[in-house]
Amino acid sequence: MTDLTSKWEVNHQPILGPFYNLYNPCVVHEPGQPYPYKMWLFGWAAEENNISTGGGDAIYHARSKDMFHWEVYAGDGRWDGTGDPKKFVPVLSRGQEKWNCWAAGDPSVVKKDDTYFMAYSSVGVETVVDADGGRKLHLINCVMGAKSTNGIDWSITKTPIVIWGKEDANRWLLASGDNSKPPADYYGSYHRPSLLWDNGRWRLWFDYYHPGTFLSMGCAENSQDFMNSGAWEVLRAEKQPLLKDYPNPCVIKVGTKYYAFADTPNYPESLGGDGRLLTMAESENGVDWSYLGYLRPEGMASSHVPQALLSTVDGVEWLYVLYAWKPETVKEKAWDYRYKEIRTMRIRVSDL
Description:
There is one protein chain. By secondary structure, the protein is mostly beta strands. It has one domain (5-351): 5 Propeller (Tachylectin-2, Chain A), CATH 2.115.10.20. Helix content is 0%, strand content 49%. The chain contains no helices and 24 strands. The relative contact order is 0.14.
């Protein structure tokens, strides 16, 4: 594949961070507002697993006047501009149901009229007792929906908006300490949503477990009420992915064309081996995709979970990609999994 990096302007300085482990920086641009840039991101702000705020991944909110200097919501109408993650307060976290009792993350937000709409990954577990009395955990990944008028206070859907139809019938069961893969015919684990309002309908891209791949990309649509879970229809998934090995997808529409970004694995040794690079694809309809090439702004294993944004600066329209950065430090031959900063790169839309 083609290295596209040289065509982009890479900002090697963080726009937000350092923190303990936050990523998936979804930004909405609202020109004319006192804070025209709004960001939602998730993870663990200051400590392992967010224990002090209830546990599990949680979604945080930030705002900026210029996209390079951010204040993070700190609760009760306060905002932290000092960059102290201990002061960050989530705006959405795990719930009480079996499909959302573990974690909430991967926010994808669209501003429509006067309302913010969010699709986000929801993770839950339930305990299952087998015929021999053994106890295992059923891991549930799905996509929930939420809406808000201020980006802070969210109403969530009663049930997932996108979930594999056989999630309860063909469970992925884990014993304590078991990291085994799901059954051979398992096509679930819907998560990492990317949301667009497009030509009078909601469109959603997500990744899911496809046997024989890492994670592949599917899609769903809804031409009715966003919050009506029953109105969402999965168009492509299971044995017919849009793109194989395409995890953490973000889809954006530029003019009449769609572009997708993901941190795709399985690159050849000439590109550094089995790491993950930001990979770009294009489509005329959001369903049929072709690869364009890869981006490597910060190295093989330190630029992940991309999010795209269109923004006009001084009369020039730019396509930004925000990504999570982590230090390239090796501990026992394994990369540090924690994302420490948010960084950016951009390209003129006219140069696409």
